[in-house]
Amino acid sequence: MVKPFVPQLVYVEPKALEYPLGKQLITKFKDMGIEIRHTTSHNQIRNLPGENHFQKYRMAKSTLVVGIRKTLKFDTSKPSAEYAIPLATGCMGHCHYCYLQTTMGSKPYIRTYVNVDEIFEAAKEYMKERAPEMTRFEASCTSDIVGIDHLTHSLKRAIEFFGKSKHGHLRFVTKFAHVDHLLDADHQGKTRFRFSINDDYVIKYFEPGTSRLHERIAAAAKVAEADYPLGFIIAPIYLHEGWKEGYLEMFEKLDATLPASARRDLTFEMIQHRFTKPAKRVIQENYPMTKLELDEAKRKWKWGRYGIGKYVYTDDEQEDIKDTLGHYIQHFFPEAKLEYFT
Predict the structure, then answer these.
(1) Residues linked to residue 110 through DSSP beta bridges, in sequence order
(2) Which residues is 67 bridged to in the sheet?
């Protein structure tokens, strides 16, 4: 079982110590005997220990920076929400295919922002602008927020903040099973708690450092028992030998564990594996032994947003994915809603 994340090294911005959460975290890490260094900015972390890129990259993934989110302009989100709410950046998982590898580039360390109340104030303004329409906020566009929340409880505070709001909903997705501290949060049904799931082959070979499938499903059952609206993102859907059987087994395990109460308002999102040329370079540098199939000749080229092209599966393969997984969802969870396939 993957243990809850504990950083090996902590950096702190001096101004972060002016916030209650900043003080609390630094006291906690001192008590744990973790080395604490000071930095002028959470964007300027240099001199990470390590002899070479491989060692420095791994050290960065276990380094936590306690900082302040200065930009309180929220990015518009992906298909699942109107805005991304920035509580953290970076992830301790080692998923070979992850898009954060290219978007975060030379800064793979994890950042948590302690000016949580200021972030909530900004969220209020966004909700006010769109009222009386509901505004959905995604908390995991740039991180796996559940992975650090046992330390910070920022996500728990966000769940309760949106629980009290009139026009806001919160969503996030995780590959971690460390959810116990979130089960008693007063969510008022306004937070959709989603788990990223995959078949055992993908988790074993491409998702080191994350909770295993059975752990995620057991955590999802707890979350359902706590009356959260529940969802699953199947991503990235990856074609390997025996993929149809692998994904069938995944659905069978889900069906065997989820309580009946979870099925009434269940959502699925499906994202096929894709990669860009820059991502391929970074993946091969960070994970030189990866088994990830990154052969452009086997893929279809597709223009993405912002003019960056990506390699996706061919049209026939995409149809096969949609038909196969769509059939499994329909068979095991007929009441569930498939939000999108991309």
Answers:
(1) 64
(2) 113
The rounded distance, in Å, linking the Cα atoms of 274 and 195 is 20
Closest of 202, 213, 209, 322 to residue 269, by C-alpha = 322
The number of beta carbons lying within 10 Å of the beta carbon of residue 10 is 19
Contacts of 176 (CB under 8 A, 6+ apart): 2, 93, 144, 146, 147, 210, 211, 216, 219
Q: How many CA atoms, within 13 angstroms, populate the side-chain half-sphere of residue 324?
A: 21
- Residue in this structure with the two tokens 């116990």, named with its chain if needed: 180
* Cα–Cα distance, 228 to 128 (Å, whole number): 25
Q: What single-letter DSSP state applies at residue 3?
A: P
Q: CB-side exposure of 240: number of CA atoms within 13 Å?
A: 20
pLDDT in tens, 289-333: 999 999 999 999 998 766 678 999 999 999 999 999 999 999 999
Is residue 113 a contact partner of residue 88, using CB atoms and an 8 Å limit?
yes
Residue 37 · residue 9 · CB < 8 Å = yes
The β-bridge relationship of strands 191-197 and 168-174 is parallel
Q: How far apart are CA 139 and CA 221, in angstroms?
A: 21
| 84, containing H or E segment | strand 83-84
Residue 41: per-residue pLDDT = 79
Q: What is the DSSP letter of 115?
A: -
Q: Is the dihedral of CA 212, 218, 224, 228 positive or negative?
A: negative
The string of pLDDT tens digits covering residues 16-48 is 999 999 999 999 999 999 999 999 877 778 788
Q: In 32-145, which ranges are continuous DSSP H helix? A: 53-60, 100-103, 116-130
Round to whole Å and give the CA distance between 202 and 240: 9
Cβ atoms of 67 and 109 closer than 8 Å: no
